[in-house]
Structure formats: C-alpha cells, structure tokens
C-alpha cells in the first residue's frame, strides 16, 4: 500500500494497530491552546514554588517570561537531579545496525530519496561491534535502524537484541513504530526500553515534513510508546526534534505526552531526549531555526522540574562545552564513544550517518570529564537476579 503526500496523515492504515487511548487528543488540545505570551514573571516564580509542578506550571516554565529567570530554573533543576539521582550519570552508546529507510522525511539523512551509502550489518558484524563497545566498559546500548521493515524486520532486530543481551545489562531500541505484539516479541528477545521521536506535535507541519512511508501516519507514531508498554517494555523515551516547528509548543507536548502516559502506566520508566536539528549529508543548511543554547537549557530544566524522576539524555549532537555544563545540572544520561555511521566501533563504517554529531569524545574522555565535576559515571544501574 502506497503512503505518500496524498495520504491523510491523521488516518490509520488498515494494517496498523489501533488502541483505545485519549492521550493524543489531550496533548494536541493543550498544544493548540498554549499561549506562550500569556505568562508573566510572577507566574514563573509561582511555578517554581510548587513542590510538584503542575502542567500549568510546566507551561509557565517554557514561556518567554521564564528566560530572565533561567538561573532560578537551573538551581531548582539541579536540586531535583541531586534528590532523585545523586551524583550518578549513566553512560551508553548508540549502535546503528542499518540505514535503509522507506520514509521520505525531508530533514533526515536516512530519507529514502537521499543519495547515501546504504548498509546493514550482519549478525557477525553486529556481535563484533558489541564486543568492541563492551570492551570500553559500557553496559548499556541503544540499537538503531532506519525505518525499513523490509530491510530491518522484527526478526532481524530481535536477533540483535539477543546478541546485545550477551554483552549489556540494558538494551534500548530506537527503530520504527510497531504493533504491541511486535514490541512484546522484542522484549522477550532482551529489549528493555523504546524511544520514539515524534519529531513535531503539530499534525499539519508533520504532514508537510513527512511526505512518504509509514512514518507519515501521525497517530500511529504518537501511540508507539503506549503500545510498547502494553508489549511489556520496562521504559519508554520521548522527544521532539527541536527546530522543526514552534519549539515551545513541541516541548510542552512532549512533556505532557510523557506525563499523561506515566499517570496511566505508573510502573513505566520515563525518559526524555532533547535533540536539535543537525546538518545532514547533501543538505548542510538544515539547522534549528531559533532554538539556541539558552532556549535548549530552559527546556531541559523545565523537563527536569516537571518530571524529576525521568531520565534525561544530552545528545552528542550538542557541543562538548554545552554537554559538560548540562550533565549533572539536569541531564542524567550521556552518550560516549559515539559513531552514527553503520558500524564504526570495530572498523570503518559500512554506511553513511543519519546526521552529524558535535561531540565525538571517547568513553575514557567522558568519564574523565564527569569525575572532574564530582559526578559518578555509571555503566548500568540494573541488577538482574
């Protein structure tokens, strides 16, 4: 079945699982109603006095009125981080095992019309990569593919999960959205958590950016985390790709999406990523429109105050200087030894990368940075008995 720009992005396709959930309607209603200029400095200060930040307080912390009070946000965020995580910072690295993709997303280096070197690792190559990563002392891995069920089917991803469980205590996935039964299978294979970037929570803009492939269907992607939890995953991650659309509205929607899902599934572990647009192969002009470092820091601090127990990752898309300043302040997870090509940890990458990173420091260098700041690098916080 062909899915292109003539397909309604808000309508499920016949082979897509539909679950009974009203979370999307609540999130989109709140996003549409958000008036960032309706908040004052007094609203922000009142929000910072709340012991448990309400959704309305979260909205205030994301508003322009909070920008002059960023130092107060940072102090509150750091206090919440220390209270819930101490000095611990979790380490992980991503492993891209395939970059074949069937979607046409105009901002992405993997999109099906971009002329890049495509590759898919074999099982032997995946294991060799994992051995090289584990030798650096890492105990958590994030497996990623392009969004091509034909070239990276559920069985292929499941086999990679089984291999990962031999070397790592925690296995995450950042792959195409699936049905609950597929998530249940991958959980049985060893996957612990699933991250899905909604990219933007504006359905109209979403349709303009995603011109072909299954990713065009907005509600199927939106409900992926809930299907993953129904499939038995321990945790789920949320993100908007900041810079695609109004970043304050997208940050608000991301936070509310996580908040509402956690209330519905109290056992779920919640995580945030805060990626900004980065240049891609064949288009170095793709960059965040108006999301500068101070705005990004405001978003990160607001996430931490709103959901203080959530894991928060600071991406290698950002500069080393920014990452160093944010980790321990509000971020509790950092990638190290990153290579975003296909493979690249044990040999030269077989395929091209999805985007360009800005911080390529090794695991040893990241650990040294954390130690110098009085923080404790943690390879894994999970103990299996």
Characterization of the model:
The protein is an alpha/beta fold and 385 residues long. It has a single domain (88-378), classed as Aldolase class I (TIM Barrel), CATH 3.20.20. Helix content is 38%, strand content 14%. The protein has 14 helices and eleven strands. The protein has helices spanning 23-33, 41-49, 55-62, 70-85, 123-134, 154-167, 180-189, 203-209, 218-222, 224-230, 247-264, 293-306, 320-326, 363-372; strands at 88-98, 104-105, 140-145, 170-174, 193-199, 210-212, 235-240, 269-273, 311-314, 333-335, 376-378. The strands form two sheets. An eight-stranded parallel barrel has the order 1-3-4-5-7-8-9-10, surrounded by six helices. Helix 13 links the parallel strand 9 (311-314) and strand 10. Helix 3 runs antiparallel to helix 12, helix 4 (70-85) packs across helix 12 (293-306) and helix 6 (154-167) packs parallel to helix 7 (180-189). The model has no long low-confidence stretch (mean pLDDT 94).
CATH architecture: Alpha-Beta Barrel
| Number of E-state strands | 11
What's the pLDDT, averaged over the residues? 94
Quickly name the level 1 CATH class.
Answer: Alpha Beta
Total helices: the number is 14
Set out the fold topology.
Elements: H1 23-33, H2 41-49, H3 55-62, H4 70-85, E1 88-98, E2 104-105, H5 123-134, E3 140-145, H6 154-167, E4 170-174, H7 180-189, E5 193-199, H8 203-209, E6 210-212, H9 218-222, H10 224-230, E7 235-240, H11 247-264, E8 269-273, H12 293-306, E9 311-314, H13 320-326, E10 333-335, H14 363-372, E11 376-378
Parallel strand pairs: 1-3, 1-10, 1-11, 3-4, 4-5, 5-7, 7-8, 8-9, 9-10
Antiparallel strand pairs: 2-6
Helix pairs in contact: 1-11, 2-3, 3-11, 3-12, 4-12, 5-6, 6-7
């Amino acid at each position: 079945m062909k899915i292109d720009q003539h397909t309604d992005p808000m309508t499920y396709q016949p082979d897509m699982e539909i679950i009974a959930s009203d979370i999307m309607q609540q999130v989109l209603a709140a996003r549409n109603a958000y008036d960032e200029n309706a908040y004052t400095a007094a609203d922000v200060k009142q929000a910072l006095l709340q012991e448990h930040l309400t959704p309305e307080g979260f909205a205030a912390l994301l508003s322009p009125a909070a920008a002059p009070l960023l130092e107060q946000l940072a102090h509150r965020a750091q206090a919440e981080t220390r209270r819930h995580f101490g000095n611990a910072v979790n380490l992980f690295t991503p492993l891209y095992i395939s970059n074949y993709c069937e979607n046409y997303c105009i901002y992405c280096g993997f999109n099906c019309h971009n002329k890049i070197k495509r590759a898919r690792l074999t099982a032997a190559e995946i294991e060799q990569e994992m051995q090289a990563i584990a030798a650096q002392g890492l105990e958590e891995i994030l497996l990623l593919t392009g969004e091509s069920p034909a070239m990276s089917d559920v069985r292929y991803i499941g086999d990679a999960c089984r291999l990962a469980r031999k070397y790592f205590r925690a296995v995450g996935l950042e792959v195409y959205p699936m049905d609950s039964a597929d998530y249940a299978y991958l959980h049985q294979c060893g996957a612990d958590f699933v991250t899905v970037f909604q990219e933007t929570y504006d359905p109209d803009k979403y349709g303009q950016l995603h011109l072909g492939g299954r990713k065009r269907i907005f509600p199927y992607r939106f409900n992926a985390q809930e299907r993953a939890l129904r499939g038995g995953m321990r945790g789920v991650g949320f993100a908007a790709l900041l810079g695609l659309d109004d970043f304050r509205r997208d940050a608000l929607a991301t936070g509310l999406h996580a908040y509402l899902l956690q209330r519905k599934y109290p056992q779920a572990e919640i995580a945030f990523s805060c990626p900004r647009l980065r240049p891609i192969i064949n288009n170095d002009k793709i960059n965040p429109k108006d999301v500068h470092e101070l705005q990004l820091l405001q978003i990160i601090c607001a996430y931490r105050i709103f959901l203080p127990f959530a894991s928060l990752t600071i991406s290698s898309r950002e500069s080393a200087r920014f990452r160093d300043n944010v980790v321990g302040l509000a971020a509790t997870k950092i990638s190290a030894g990153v290579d975003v090509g296909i493979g690249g940890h044990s040999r030269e990458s077989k395929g091209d990368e999805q985007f360009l990173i800005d911080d390529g420091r090794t695991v040893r260098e990241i650990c040294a940075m954390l130690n110098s700041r009085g923080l404790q690098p943690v390879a894994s916080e999970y103990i299996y008995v």
